[in-house]
């Protein structure tokens, strides 16, 4: 008969709720759950069709959860154990959930995958690694996306009961027949039940902590007929926008794998379908943009669109990059106006990060190049296998950085550092050759001249040196230009008088370096903007221009664009923008401290003169304006 069993706590160890495996994902539970479970499915493809992953919200009658009474009793035992208020609140919420007439369950089911192969009682099997392993990966492929066996814990982060059931059907390698297995795992706190001292960790299944291997012994909602894996987060913490948050995470992390037809997602019982044909509509959906704004991921959404453009464009050039002993990479390079001069690393079609900073290769500055964006990824097939394996070894569990110290052997670490440095040197040389400034029209260089140091050397050797060591590049005194006064502002709008010193009142607008801090206008909290510049997209249409700036804080910002006059600033009404949203003629978008932003805006009326930007945080405070 199935039931819950807890491990004995013979050492009388005190175990609380803050289990490191779960806490890793507490800060962004929906984002992490979607990313991690999607990656696990992506790593187990079977057949020629795309991997399919469905996120379904179930409402299960309490009578159909065979361990409901046992779990409620265990929670009561935990409540009898003195703990802090935070732990008590969590346990009381868990008791309320398991006592409800219906229990909400998030089902994450994949198809066109191998399933969790057994034998289920073999501690080295894929099934055992996922269900019972800690810090053990269940990936048999050394080039798979998953690395540490930690991501599976993300499913617990969205469960108020911290309870997950795994159900799988796979092909038994011994018999060639399909086999079924199911088992649950839960974590409360260490507690006493009668005279038994029990651990925080428990399992649901057959006696002796063994899996259920007959589909008839499992509840109907747990069983499955198709080969693949289902994960059930029992006591799902449902928020109104959970589906949009998960969709946003899947779209911004798996966009390349989706576009290549390698994986498809179905969210909220199929209400949102994400595949090759629907990907663009998902990325452009107003609901997704609203959620991105709410959770501070508008940059990630914009980045996904730009990288997708890079992957698809006929103007993109694909450069092979080979490093001796490491293998081959492919650099997808798109050079075009308005792009952020960034390189982003992907592996297995999944986004990782945009730098090798811990290898001394931040890849943040690319002086003397045109605007571009690039994707760097291991080559397909055997040519890129070793390179993918290395990236897997040095990728951190959060999928946000590559860290050489993860290689313990000193000689191997030194070799990896050398290989990554050579890789980035080769990449920089490709970009320098393909995106050099030589072909840019002289008027464009002149438009940018106020951003560069006075007396900068034109010696090619100095430029090369700056490329090789961008972090040591030193800027000199800003050059001041003698630009003619722009035509007066036309259009309507009430200007705001600024108090200036006599010196500032006589300053020419063209002299602004884009880095100065100025007195903020208005009483609301503001966000500093530096290195501000703008450029007309089409010299014949003065309504459309690209605006570039760097924010001095993380914020959801409202940006006012004004016609910059000598004494008055006249607010200009925006009609549209290619990122963020327009509210009452102003731009609302998320900004990150220190990151370069490019936005193409369209005015409601033609205007070709200088503009000024003022950014105001909708939640926090404090900034300045910049002149472009």
In short:
The chain is α+β, with helices and mostly antiparallel strands and 628 residues long.
Main pleated-sheet profile: 10 strands, mixed
The rounded distance between the terminal residues' Cα atoms is: 73 Å
- The oligomeric state of the chains shown is single chain
DSSP summary, beta strand count: 27
Number of domains: 5
Mean pLDDT value: 83
Low-confidence stretches: 141-148, 439-451, 453-476, 478-523, 620-627
Principal-axes shape call: globular
Q: State which percent range the strand residues make up.
A: 25-35%
Alpha-beta classification: alpha+beta
Q: Could you characterize what this model shows?
A:
The chain is α+β, with helices and mostly antiparallel strands and 628 residues long. 24% of the residues lie in helices and 29% in strands. The strands form 4 sheets. Strands 1, 2, 3, 4, 5, 6, 7, 8, 9 and 10 form a 10-stranded mixed β-sheet that branches. Helix 2 (29-42) packs parallel to helix 6 (242-259) and helix 8 (286-295) crosses helix 9 (298-312).
Q: What's the helix and strand layout?
A:
Elements: E1 3-8, H1 20-23, H2 29-42, E2 51-61, H3 68-79, H4 85-98, E3 102-111, H5 126-131, E4 159-171, E5 178-187, E6 191-193, E7 196-205, E8 228-236, H6 242-259, E9 263-267, E10 272-274, H7 279-283, H8 286-295, H9 298-312, E11 317-323, E12 327-335, E13 342-347, E14 350-353, E15 372-378, H10 385-394, H11 410-434, H12 442-448, H13 460-468, E16 496-497, H14 502-505, E17 526-527, E18 529-538, E19 541-551, E20 555-564, E21 568-571, E22 574-577, E23 581-583, E24 586-591, E25 596-603, E26 611-617, E27 625-627
Parallel strand pairs: 2-9, 13-15
Antiparallel strand pairs: 1-7, 2-3, 3-8, 4-5, 4-8, 5-7, 6-7, 9-10, 11-12, 12-15, 13-14, 16-21, 17-26, 18-19, 19-25, 20-21, 20-24, 20-26, 22-25, 23-24, 26-27
Helix pairs in contact: 2-6, 3-4, 6-8, 6-9, 8-9
